[in-house]
Design brief:
The protein is built from 17 helices and 12 strands. About 45% of the residues lie in helices and about 15% in strands. The chain is globular and about 65 Å long. A hairpin with a 5-residue loop joins strand 1 and strand 2. The strands form 2 sheets. Strands 9-8-7-6-10-11-12 form a 7-stranded mixed beta sheet, with helices on both faces. It has about 450 residues and is of the alpha/beta class. The longest helix has 25 residues.
Length: about 450
Amino acid sequence: MLNNEYLKRVYEEVERRDAHEPEFLQAVREVFESLELVVDKHPEWEKNGLIERFVEPERVVEFRVPWVDDAGKTHVNRGYRVQFNSAIGPYKGGLRFHPSVNLSVIKFLGFEQILKNSLTTLPMGGGKGGSDFDPKGKSDAEVMRFCQSFMTELYRHIGQFTDTPAGDIGVGGREVAYMYGQYKRIVDRFEGGVITGKGLTFGGSLARTQATGFGLCYFSAEALKHLKNDSYEGKTVVVSGSGNVAQYCAEKVTALGGKVVAMSDSQGYVYDPNGIDLPKLFDIKQKRRARISVYADEVAGAEYHEGCRNIWNVKCDIAHPCASQNEMDEKGAQALVDNGCMAVFEGANMPLTPEAIEVVKSNGLLYSPGKASNAGGVATSGLEMTQNSMRLSWSFEEVDEKLQGIMKNIYKACYDASVECGKPGDLMLGANVAGFLKVAEAMMAQGVV
């Protein structure tokens, strides 16, 4: 329930204009509920229409993407790029290829990206893009033709000083490489900083692949240490998903002394009481691109269960939702509480429903939103852009050290903001406020644009 009249009025207008965009409305409302604690101190925001401008993308691009499959049949998908806010730097945010992609999803992701990028302290604005294309089950040649068609339109809207895309769900190293190759072919320039997540042989950064999962654990370890005087050591952990973020989250959890006992994909989840065999998981997911159920077929003692949402019934100390938006509902959150879970740190973007967040926070679990705890990926993308601009490459250790420092600073910014707002330890409040204040200051300084 919003009480501030200014925020209430702006939200009602967003709701009226974008009633058909539930994910975007959810993201806006969550941020507004946090901003209620600071908006009264800044009457100049209302005078300058700051909040109205903040929730409206600077530019939305939607286009068709025609491509031909291996049998010669033509398909048409929709492509999107939402350039949301460039107050602190060029638009920066991933591309998602998944059947669930629509304008609401891309707008919510772009909106979250503004605050996430702000928290990294790097000069990056917020944007997001993608398509309802599904790479699963497609040949390399089909994926290449789609990516080339997608970039044939997108190229005119991006550039290293304008908008720098990266990967997201369904967009890994293969897809990034195909898109970059097409971009380079069209513009006739080796403009490395135009897209991140590239291969190491053509401008990519060491540690970028691991960055989101590793960064999640660096943030979580700092929160556990500071707020609970605890660590991952000896903890049982559930990680939803089995893509890039989940894989490297599981790897770092294990390195820090925890035991990951369950992981999932869109069909179901596997439970391994002995701890997930990471080399086996990587082989199944990275090399064979197979379903998570294969893990249970090949690992003694492991169980496969249909229904990915049921993964939260597995008893654990720490939960890392790393799959997709709204994957944990009120029922899932209550199952974690009932089984004695102590903390939920988001690895995906907005994986908890508002009802799930309420259950988690009201029961005293430590909780962090994805815009803070999963910011390691975009932070390292920013480091990749830096290396491209400087025409050099840092070692894995150098990048990893910078990533650890960034994630510790993000935690500190969130905690300090929560203290200033009178709710110490409320990391969701802290992330929203700390991220917003930097963007608001830049927007005010630049005038009504």
